[in-house]
Structure formats: structure tokens, C-alpha cells
Amino acid sequence: MSGLARYTTRKILRISSDSEIPLIGCIAFGLIDRGTNLIQVRPITTCPLSCIFCSTDAGPHSRNRQTEYVIDDLDYIVEEFRKIVAFKGPKHIEAHIDTVGDPLTYPKLVDLVQELATTPGVEVISLQTHGVLLTEKLVEELDSAGLSRINLSIDALDPELAKFLSNTPSYDVEKIVRIAEYIAKSTNIDLLIAPVWVPGLNDKEIPKIIELALKIGAGKKWPPLGIQKYIPHKRGRKPRNIKPMSWSEFYRRLQILEKRYDVKLILRPSDFGIHKRKSIKAPFKIGEIVRAKVVAPGWLKNEIIATARGFCITVVRASLEQFPIGTEVFVRILKTKHNILIGKIA
Ligand code: SF4
Q1: How much of the chain, in percent, has pLDDT values that exceed 70?
Q2: Ligand 1 within 6 A of 104 CB?
Q3: Is the Cβ atom of 59 under 6 angstroms away from ligand 1?
């Protein structure tokens, strides 16, 4: 199997500037501005893993997704990104490539990093990945292209537990650790190790992962670790019989580990230079009914994507059988937070 079909049997929608699909409004792809100097860049949705705790239900074992998207047209996403940078003010911008899958599946990733790096005002380019597709050669290419940091998720060092958590028999954590060492030694890329702490499953792994990060020299410029709390999501995957930690319990445990290892584990946006910045405002009000045009199948089953006023709106409880591409529909806006627009047929 070749191309993106390696990662999914679902329909792959290729997006270009001719597709009439805006790159703001849908959580699954494009660009997200949450009112800080960080812009999330989401060029693709596919993932080679199927982690049992995945909040976005990504990968080959996904049950809720119906479509994967790839922004084939590099110029399109770069131009739209640059418009947002210009709007926000071209200084101290971080481009954070953090998809609802794994960005390493994006065939034009190195070119994308290079284009982001040469955008005036962009000072940091970071990437969130589980690293399965990383090779030494790719690390070198990303290094030369201008990548600043890799947030690498390693959830367990025990090989069998790591396979279980990733729900992927071929997952080889020892290879990922070798790549982590290689990143830590690279010229420009900083390494942050970002395990998801799933209580009852990888508690004993977390101290080992901290020791690994400190041993290999992660965190030259930014903190070496970004431990994430497992949070069950409505349409994500939830491991059986796991009770999530409360936030207070999570911070209490991090505090204990901070003292034991003398390392900062409770992080704030300011640790990464993130600050508030003016945000794009989608011109919609909650409850408003807007005329929109159907342009694509939705990311999840029983959803479609429509566009209005230059934004994508995810329309829930609707299908292309009911409302084919090109149909005009009236949509009631349900959510607008961070310009991620959700609506339903009015
Ligand atoms: S947690 Fe990340 S690597 Fe794992 S399936 Fe989800 S998107 Fe893929």
C-alpha cells in the first residue's frame, strides 16, 4: 500500500485553494487561532497509531471518523497562515503543528516547516508527534528546515505496555527512544517528552520517562517534559475501567515528582513564551441562522461541512445523502469558541 491509504481505509479529501473550503472554522484541519501568539497548523488528519486513550479517535481503528483530510496545496495553507500572522502582528509567533492525528503523515511536512520558518514574525515552529515515522534523516531535514521543538509523546518504556497503549503491535518504543536521543543531540531542535498519564495503566512508567528525558538532555531551551493528563472525550477512545485523575490529584502527583527529580513539571503557557494576542473574530453569533453552502463530508460520522462568510461550519446530525455537496442550507450556529464553528440544520 502506498501514500496515505497506508493509514486509513476511510475517504481522504484533498483540499486545495480550488476546493472552496476555507481553512478556518473546522477543528480537524487548517488553522486555529485561540487568541495567543501561537497558531495551530493542521495540514492533515491521518495517524499510523490507534492509541487506546486517543481523544480524537485517530488511526486505523477509528470508529467515529468518516473522512480524513489533507491540505495538498502547500501554498494555500502557507498563504492563509501568513494572513493570520499579519493580522496578529508579525512578531514572536509560534507555529504549532499539532493535528488530530500525527503530522508526520503529511507528505509535505519539511516544505511546510521551511515555509513557516521563513514567514516574517515566526520565531518558533513546534511539532506534536508520537514519532513512529521519524528517522534520523527526517530529523536532519526538519532541523535544516527550521523546526525549533519536537513534543514527542512516549507513554511507556516497557515495550509490551507501549504496544498495548498504542494499540499497534508493530510499535517499537526502543526505536522511538533512539530517535529521541538523536533529536536531543540535533543542532537546533529542542526535545520535549510529552507522555499521556493514564492512571492505572502507566503510573510506573512516568518516573522512568522523566529519568530518560533528563538523561538524554531533553529541554535545552524549553522544559524537558510536558506530562499530559488523560481526559476522556465524548467521541474519543476511552480505555476500560480507567477512572481519570482529578486536576488536583494530577498536580499533587506532579509536585511530588518535581521534588524527587528537581525538574519543572507543572507548566504554564509563559514557560513557552505564549501570551495573549488579538484574535480573528468569526462573524457569527450563537443562535444566529446563516445561509451556508455544503462543501464536504464531515470529519465524524453524521456531520457535514458547510461554508459561510469565509469560514467552515461543522454541521452536526446531517449527511451528504440529505444535503449533497453544493446544496444551500440554513444553519443555526451552536458554538463559536476560538472560531471553531458548530451548527445544526435550522
Ligand atoms: S494519541 Fe496521537 S498518535 Fe495516538 S492515535 Fe491519537 S493522534 Fe494518533
Answers
A1: 99
A2: no
A3: yes
* CA 106 – CA 129 distance, rounded (Å): 12
Domain borders along the chain are 3-272, 289-345
Q: Is 190 in the pocket of ligand 1 (CB under 6 A)?
A: no
**Does residue 332 contact residue 343 with C-beta atoms inside 8 Å?**
yes
Q: CATH for 3-272, among 3.30.420.40, 3.20.20.70, 3.30.1360.170, 3.50.30.50?
A: 3.20.20.70
Q: Is the CB of 51 under 6 A from ligand 1?
A: yes
3-state secondary structure 179-205: HHHHHHHCCCCEEEECCEECCCCCCCH
- How far is residue 149's CA from residue 126's CA, in Å, rounded to a whole number? 5
In ligand 1, which atom is closest to the CA atom of 47? Answer: 8
What tens digit of pLDDT does each residue of 301-326 get? 999 999 999 999 999 999 999 999 99
Residue whose C-alpha is closest to residue 153's, from 103, 116, 217: 103
- Ligand 1 atom closest to the Cα of residue 59 is 5
- Tell me the longest C-alpha to C-alpha distance in the chain: 60
User: Is residue 58 in contact with ligand 1, taking CB distance under 6 Å?
Assistant: yes
- Name the one residue in this structure whose C-alpha cell is 518504543: 173
Question: How far apart (Å, rounded) are the C-alpha atoms in residues 63 and 327?
Answer: 27
Query: Whole-angstrom Cα distance, residue 113 to residue 127?
Result: 9
Nearest CA residue ID for atom 7, ligand 1 = 101
Per-residue confidence (pLDDT) for residue 257, from 0 to 100: 98
**Scanning the structure block, which residue is given the C-alpha cell 491521518?**
46
Instruction: Could you please state the CATH topology (level 3) that the domain comprising 289-345 is classified under.
Output: OB fold (Dihydrolipoamide Acetyltransferase, E2P) (2.40.50)
Q: In the numeric block, which cell numbers belong to residue 224?
A: 524537558
Burial of 214 (0-12, 13-18, 19+ CB in 10 A): middle
